[in-house]
User: Which sequence fits this backbone?
């Protein structure tokens, strides 16, 4: 298991959807390493509450209202970061939604032939379009970092290879809107990493595991601390670390 010993003093990290779950635990982990963490959330009060929670543990962070679907929030985040820090070292596109499963039981029912256009668009808006637009908006600030890191929260359910293999444990999990949005996000990772291959910026997709969060449900087998580890690994990669990959912990996953 990777032990995090990096000193991130002076590094600025923005995490979307970080008021709870994997995002909040990732904020906790990066703050422990010395990074100045910005907790992004749709609701400023919830973001501030998360900051207070970390402060009780002796950790520093600040809250910033970012509804990933609101382009105005993207622009305001850019203006804020540029004025206060002049750069962004780490962007973790953590916010995401899953609408395919039955909310009460987290039961998965394959509704590929009946899922509505509205549900597909809602899922893609949050899981695909929002991280792309936010990343594009903030990229000029990431370029000013001496070691920019972009981490896209994907899922093993976005692996076309694993979804197509009847022997895969992920094969029965046919949540079409979610899976397709994560596969598309993986494509963004590949393309952006290729564009930035001659820069110090590294771009990777990650699978956090089946994590015990509101989205993951009570039957998930990974706790939140372990679920945050892959995000932290990819956010703190050394100069010779990978880019344009898909990982769980330090293990490559098939596209």
Assistant:
């Amino acid at each position: 298991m990777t032990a995090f010993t990096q000193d991130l003093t002076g590094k600025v990290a923005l995490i979307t959807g970080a008021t709870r779950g994997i995002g909040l635990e990732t904020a906790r982990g990066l703050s422990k390493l010395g990074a100045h963490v910005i907790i992004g959330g749709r609701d400023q009060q919830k973001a501030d509450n998360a900051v207070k929670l970390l402060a009780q543990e002796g950790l520093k962070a600040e809250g910033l209202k970012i509804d990933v679907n609101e382009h105005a929030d993207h622009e305001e985040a850019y203006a804020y970061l540029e004025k206060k820090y002049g750069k962004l070292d780490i962007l973790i596109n953590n916010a995401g939604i899953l609408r395919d499963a039955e909310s009460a039981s987290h039961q998965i029912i394959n509704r590929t032939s009946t899922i509505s256009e509205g549900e597909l668009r809602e899922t893609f808006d949050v899981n695909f379009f929002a991280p792309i637009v936010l990343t594009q908006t903030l990229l000029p600030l990431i370029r000013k970092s001496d070691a920019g890191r972009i981490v896209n929260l994907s899922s093993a359910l976005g692996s076309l290879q694993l979804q197509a293999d009847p022997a895969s444990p992920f094969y029965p999990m046919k949540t079409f809107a979610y899976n397709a949005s994560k596969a598309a996000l993986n494509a963004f990772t590949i393309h952006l990493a290729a564009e930035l291959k001659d820069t110090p910026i590294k771009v990777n997709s990650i699978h956090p595991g089946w994590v015990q969060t509101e989205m993951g449900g009570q039957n998930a087998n990974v706790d939140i601390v372990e679920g945050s580890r892959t995000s932290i690994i990819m956010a703190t990669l050394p100069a010779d670390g990978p880019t344009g990959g898909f990982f769980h912990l330090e293990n490559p996953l098939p596209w």
Q: What stands out?
A: The domain at 12-252 is CATH 3.40.50.720 (Rossmann fold). The chain has one domain: 12-252. The CA atoms of residues 27 and 37 lie 6 Å apart.
